[in-house]
Amino acid sequence: MKVPFTPEKMKFIGRHAVFGEKLLLSLSGSGVEFEYTGKGLSVTFTGGEAAKIADNDANYARVAIYVDGKRQEDFLLDKVTVEKKIAESPVEKTSVIRIMKLSECAMSLVVINPIEINEGEIIKPTPAKNLKIEFIGDSITCGYGVDDPDPLHDFKTATEDVTKAFSYKTAAALDADYQMFSISGYGIISGYTDDPDVRHEEQLIPTFYESMGLSYDRVDGIPAAQDIAWDFEKYRPDLIVINLGTNDDSFCQDNEEKQAWFSAEYTKFLKRVRELNKASRIVCVLGLMGDRLYPSVVRAVEEYSKDSGDKNISVLHLPEQDPKVGYGANFHPLESEHRKAADVLVEYIKN
Q: In the CATH scheme, what architecture does the domain 2-125 have?
């Protein structure tokens, strides 16, 4: 018996899109969660173009399946079709199932095909949490390189795990529902650049924030993630945490004109975020991978508040990762450094 992807049957985590009987996931941490009563169910995953390429562990989607809070499956979608048996038991029992995309949207996508259960078995959504958070960010929010303790290694989805990032840890500590909008290398006025004279204007979070995501991957018969408009009525966050500026710093550096430009565009983005999320508390954070642009973020928030009269917004400095601890891939934070940042953010939110 096929279970439809509807709110009556399961809780959706993060941005998503339903096409017929199929559920498309793109962004880090997106997925579904439900309570299942039965003797075991079957889930079939479909990958996009990235899944068709051999030895492509820099781009395969990484997926996790949790049963009663424990990770039972952690796999790369390295084939177009992968089937998983979940919660198999000789007797009927009730379990909470969570299926989650651990890796980010840019490199690869995941389609979950209709979940198969036996006649008489039950699937129902887990209850919503009392607090809803949205995280807007870059590779740090995605958990880039967190499973690779070699800073000289390059990006791989195989070593990216959003559950070890400060964002997910913050939501878990607060027992909150969450959604992520995060893309590695993207910024406010420029994506990451090796040359401060070269601006990557195509890699901007504000360009894609109103879509389901941004991916270079495609799934047969389904529009590109960036071409799917996100319906903001589906998820109304109580709190929005914005962690942007690290990639812009590679372009701005110590140039005061560029820093002023960054602040002005950050202010514009805040105005748009507020238009789309009228009641949300907004917290702008920076510092985990350097804080040179932190004063520019403060300036942007001050200008925004002055222009709009909006006081439901603030700025928080996150602790910078400790070089003595080491680094993940491409000098990104290890899980221990994400945890320190999450602790600071959690305490701030509680207060």
A: Sandwich (2.60)
Same fold, 2-125 and 132-350: no
- Kindly list the distances between the CA atom of residue 342 and the CA atoms of 71, 141, 183, in Å, as whole numbers in the listed order: 21, 11, 19
| Contact present, 9 and 3 (Cβ < 8 Å) | yes
In the chain, where are the structural domains located? Answer: 2-125, 132-350
pLDDT mean values, one per 10 residues, the chain (351 residues) = 94 97 97 97 96 94 98 97 95 97 98 93 97 98 98 97 98 98 98 98 98 96 96 98 98 98 98 98 98 98 97 98 98 98 98 93
Superfamily classification of domain 132-350: SGNH hydrolase (3.40.50.1110)
